[in-house]
From TrEMBL:
Gene3D superfamilies in alphabetical order: 3.30.420.40
InterPro entries in the record: ATPase_NBD (IPR043129), FGGY_C (IPR018485), FGGY_Carb_Kinase (IPR050406), FGGY_N (IPR018484)
Any GO BP annotation: D-xylose metabolic process
Protein name per UniProt: Carbohydrate kinase, FGGY
Domain (Carbohydrate kinase FGGY C-terminal): residue spans on this chain: 281-478
CDD domains: ASKHA_NBD_FGGY_BaXK-like
UniProt entry keywords in alphabetical sequence: Carbohydrate metabolism, Kinase, Transferase, Xylose metabolism
């Protein structure tokens, strides 16, 4: 009876619009997550997609954006109908999140000027270096302002026509609501944000205008940037045109309020309740990054560390690695093919589970093997292109267990180098929370990550839901803040979302820590092999490098 009552309550919440919808456009999957009044996931939908390397640049077409969003939304609606027998027509709130950074430039008629340049592109080195020196503030290669200034340096013909810039989340939100805005966390990867004002840094904008004036007189960068909003503010409502874009069937009604669009880093912080100082989270997907909320500014500029903000505008140090779990996925797919060739059933979950569990049986240092997951360039290690590699010596012990432990270590190798810089800055971390599909097999990646970062790693029940759930929670927070007064994001998460939440915390194992340290020493030395591979072996994809 209790179960029947709970299902009836959820049906009522769905039909009455007391739910929140979150949509996140990740690097390999677009995911939709519907949450109920208690913030628990009610239904999900997804669509798989991939970036393309076109004319030497990583991109997604805008047609692919909308086809994927519509499929993910339709998949979610089908899941709701199957579970609860009702079809949602409205929601209490919505939010859009997406991979951060990159370059989406539009003209005055709102036409896209050049194909979307994603965070994965590393062609902005001169611009990033010059801006970093100008500001005394690290400007990574993937930031939107680096892309804009590089286009100015290269005299690209589209530059005079640029009327506004945005991120992928900002673009989707704009098309759904008509408003050109960004959440402060996403905005902090477009241009540096001043934590005191929670707006773009006025001093740096003035410096950039002076620099740009010599090449493009009259171009005011501030006029190109989206408006910045913080978590809890309403960021517009779903228009009739936006509703049709998301749901061509015409069932979805206009008028749903939307929270500020955020980047996947911000939604990862929300999904792991790591928005307070001395907390941090690690998000593992196509890229892998750590976010640590700072008590104070860093003492000096580090190219390994970005300074961004939480969705509430507090300063965060970000260790962003361009390469994450994609290489693991490629190996798992190949092992799955092998299993099926032998005549056995092999679902993706079965294959991942078997391979990850094998990793725990490997030698703590990987048996002398090395693995590099570099499908793209990796700024932290100074590489503008990548070649996935497995390297061993005649004396290495090549077993499945060692191979898989090394592959997981390889996914965390660059991250560990960046986290070492944070430790040298004296940044204190009380807790690290991890999320992403790599943690779905309980106790494996989590344990090896704890060894890699030398700190306890917690994984919650919603770890595999990730950013789609995080942006749904931000949408629910916006609705509560506008209706009942803003309690503050940290308080809201502590008291209404995560109170009583089950967490699995793994402490670093001393043997694993020592083994990973030995592995990382080889990993740093072996970067010379990676560099040589980049120089010697062309990608063979469109004849261009990543």
């Amino acid at each position: 009876m209790v179960q029947q009552d709970a299902a009836a309550d959820l049906r009522a919440a769905i039909t009455e619009g007391r739910t929140a919808l979150g949509i996140e456009l990740g690097s390999t999957r677009i995911k939709a997550c519907l949450i109920g009044p208690d913030h628990a996931p009610v239904a999900t939908g997804s669509h798989d997609w991939e970036n393309q390397l076109v004319d030497g640049r990583w991109t997604y077409s805008l047609d692919a954006v909308w086809a994927g969003l519509q499929e993910a939304y339709a998949d979610l609606v089908a899941d709701v109908e199957q579970r609860y027998g009702v079809r949602p027509t409205t929601f209490g709130a919505m939010g859009v999140s997406a991979m951060m950074h990159g370059y989406l430039a539009f003209d005055a008629a709102d036409e896209l000027l050049v194909p979307f340049r994603t965070w994965r592109n590393t062609s902005t080195g001169p611009a990033a270096a010059e801006l970093t020196e100008l500001f005394g503030y690290n400007i990574p290669l993937r930031w939107s302002v680096a892309h804009l200034y590089q286009a100015i340096l290269d005299d690209e013909p589209h530059v005079p026509d640029v009327a506004h810039l945005t991120t992928l989340a900002g673009y989707v939100h704009w098309r759904l609501t008509g408003r050109k805005v960004l959440g402060v966390g996403d905005a902090s990867g477009v241009f540096p944000v001043d934590p005191a004002t929670k707006q773009y840094d006025a001093r740096m904008l003035a410096k950039l205008d002076e620099l740009v004036a010599a090449r493009r007189p009259g171009l005011a960068v501030a006029e190109l940037l989206p408006e910045v909003l913080v978590a809890g503010q309403e960021a517009g409502r779903l228009t009739p045109e936006g509703a049709t874009l998301l749901d061509p069937s015409g069932t979805l009604q206009a008028g749903v309020p939307l929270c500020p669009p955020e980047g996947d880093a911000g939604t990862g912080m929300v999904a792991t309740n790591s928005v307070a100082p001395r907390t941090g989270n690690i998000s593992a997907g196509t890229s892998i990054f750590a976010m640590v909320v700072l008590e104070r500014p860093l003492a000096r500029v580090h190219h390994e560390l970005d300074l961004v903000t939480t969705p509430a505008g507090d300063l965060v140090a970000m260790v962003h690695c361009n390469n994450g779990a994609s290489e693991l996925g490629a190996w798992a797919e190949m092992f799955g093919e092998f299993a099926r060739a032998l005549g056995g059933p092999a679902t993706a979950d079965d294959v991942f589970g078997a391979l990850f569990r094998a990793a725990l049986e490997g030698e703590t240092d990987g048996g002398g093997l090395l693995a590099y997951n570099y499908l793209a360039g990796e700024p932290i290690t100074g590489l503008d292109a990548g070649r996935p590699l497995v390297v061993r010596t005649p004396g290495s012990r090549l077993t499945l267990a060692n191979f898989m432990r090394t592959q997981i270590y390889g996914a965390f190798g660059t991250l560990a180098l960046g986290m070492r810089v944070l430790a040298e800055e004296g940044v204190a971390i009380d807790a690290l929370f991890a999320h992403g599909g790599i943690f779905k097999t309980a106790g494996v990646a989590q344990r090896l990550l704890a060894a890699a970062v030398g700190a306890p790693v917690a994984v919650g029940e919603t770890a595999s839901e990730g950013g789609a759930w995080g942006i749904a929670v931000l949408a629910a927070y916006m609705r509560a803040a506008t209706a009942d007064g803003d309690p503050g994001l940290g308080t809201y998460l502590d008291e209404r979302v995560f109170s009583g939440a089950a967490l699995d915390v793994v402490e670093p194992d001393a043997d694993d820590v020592a083994g990973f340290a030995a592995y990382l020493e080889r990993y740093e030395a072996g970067l010379a092999v990676e560099r040589a591979a980049v120089e010697a072996i062309p990608t063979g994809t469109n004849g261009a490098d990543a």
